Each structure stands twice: as C-alpha cells, then as structure tokens.
Amino acid sequence: AQKVTQAQTEISVVEKEDVTLDCVYETRDTTYYLFWYKQPPSGELVFLIRRNSFDEQNEISGRYSWNFQKSTSSFNFTITASQVVDSAVYFCALSEREDSSYKLIFGSGTRLLVRP
Amino acid sequence: DTAVSQTPKYLVTQMGNDKSIKCEQNLGHDTMYWYKQDSKKFLKIMFSYNNKELIINETVPNRFSPKSPDKAHLNLHINSLELGDSAVYFCASSHPLRQGKTQYFGPGTRLLVL
Questions:
Q1: For residue A51, what is the nearest residue in chain B, using CA coordinates?
Q2: What is the distance in angstroms between the Cα of A40 and the nearest Cα belonging to chain B?
Q3: Where do the DSSP E strands lie in chain B?
Q4: Is B110 in CB contact (< 8 Å) with chain A?
Q5: pLDDT mean over B77-84
Q6: Chain A partners of B99 at a C-beta cutoff of 8 Å?
Q7: pLDDT in tens, chain A (116 residues)
Q8: What distance in Å separates the CA atoms of residue B5 and residue A33, rounded to the nearest whole number?
Q9: CA-angle at B28, arms to B23 and B31, nearest 5°
Q10: Label partner for A41 (CA 20 to 30 A): which of A28, A84, A111, B22?
Q11: Per-residue pLDDT tens digits for B16-68
C-alpha cells in the first residue's frame, strides 16, 4: 500500500540554523510523483515542489533544497539559514493514480518552529 | 486573481443541520478534489471529479455529497452534520496531464459543529 512517513512530529530550531525534514515513502508504482506542501499558521496549503520518480536530481530554490533518493525511498527537505517565517507544518505527499485521477497520500506532517 | 477559492471560510453550525461548501477554480483544470484535515492535521482525500465525473470516492459517509455543475466548480453538501464532521475541508484542482498533476489547494473551510 502507498504510504508516506514523516517521523519527525515537531522540530524546534533557532533562527539561522539549518534544518532537514525527513520523508520516507512506500509505493508499488514505477512512476510516481512526490510533493512538499507548507501549511503556515494562517492555514492554507502552499505547494513547494514536485519531483518525478524518474528525476533523481537534487533541487535547490533559494534557501530550500530537496534530496530525492530512490534507493532509500526518501525525499528530504532542507531549509538553510532558517527564518521565523519558515515556521509552519510541512507535509510530504505521494501521488497515487486511481482510474483517470490522482490522489495525494499525505504524511502526518512535521511542525517546524523557528525561534528568534 | 484567486486560483482556487472556497466559501465560506468559516462555518459554525449545530448538529443535525445541513450545510454546503462551495469551491471554484480559475486555473482551467479538469480535475477537482475535496480533502479533509482533522484536528491532528491529518489530510485525507474524500472525493475527486474529472470533467464533472466522480472518479474517487473514499469511504465517506453518504451524508457527504459532492456536486460538480461544471469543470470549474465542485461543491460539497453535508447532511445531518455530526460533531465528528468538525474539521478543515480543502478543495484542490489539478490538470490531468500537465504540471505533473500538481494539486493546488484553496484556503480551506473551517467547519465547527456544536
């Protein structure tokens, strides 16, 4: 069965520290997509990144970087030089195809608190 | 130029009432979804519609009935509300082929059943 595990329930860091959020997934599909979403205290779900299972290149976007390793079924997310505005719940998700649609299987989320 | 919008943002109601949540997207997407986020922040899909046709129906009570009048709208009607229905309901949309099926979410509707 498809499953996403975010073992870190909550992480607390001091501003400017680097922090890595872990994500491990299980899937029987050979082609799949992985995602990270951010849910700030205001509550909306903000799309951060999508990764195709065929593309194992790591990606960097400003202070954000993602490390996709198919061999360990992991898709980890690192924030460099964290800021207070990074405080949020971060969700990792895996897409699962069902008929002509896709559904997202979410992990349980990691709450990141960045203290000034 | 809101991409995915939901109304209302907050909904407080009594047990047993019937209520509706509306969702609209202006992204030109063909597929729309409803997700439920419980008090522990766990997100789970409820329904998916593709071109107004119901595709995914997770094990959701019959009291929940989605309706898609056109590709840009997906509404959620809930009958006989129960305390356990209190949650945040998110609408989302995606293009079936482009953008890697990325789902873009609305702001959420916070439902509180008293």
A1: B100
A2: 11
A3: 4-7, 10-13, 19-25, 31-37, 43-50, 53-57, 64-70, 73-78, 87-94, 104-105, 109-113
A4: yes
A5: 96
A6: 50
A7: 789 999 999 999 999 999 999 999 999 888 889 999 999 999 999 999 999 888 888 888 899 999 999 999 999 999 999 999 999 999 999 998 777 778 899 999 999 999 99
A8: 25
A9: 60
A10: B22
A11: 999 999 999 999 998 999 999 999 999 999 999 888 888 888 878 999 999 99
Tokens 């680097």: give the residue.
Answer: A18
DSSP A9: S
Give which of A25, A41, A21, A43 is closest to A33, Cα–Cα.
Answer: A25
Q: Please check whether residue B102 touches A, CB under 8 A.
A: yes
Residue A35: the pLDDT is 95
Report whether pLDDT(B72) > 80: yes
Number of Cα atoms under 13 Å in the Cβ half of residue A75: 28
Binary contact (B48, A98; C-beta < 8 A): yes
Cβ-Cβ contacts under 8 Å, B105 against chain A: 37, 44-47
How far from the centroid of its chain's Cα atoms is residue A74's Cα? 10
**Selection from A53, A37, A52, A35 nearest residue B90 by Cα:** A37
Chain A residues with a Cβ under 8 Å from any Cβ in chain B: 33, 35, 37, 39, 43-47, 50, 52, 89, 91, 95, 98-104, 106, 108-109
Of B56, B101, B107, the CB nearest to A95: B101
Average confidence score pLDDT of chain B: 92
Token pair 């979804």 is found at B33
Interchain CB contacts (distance < 8 Å): A and B: 69
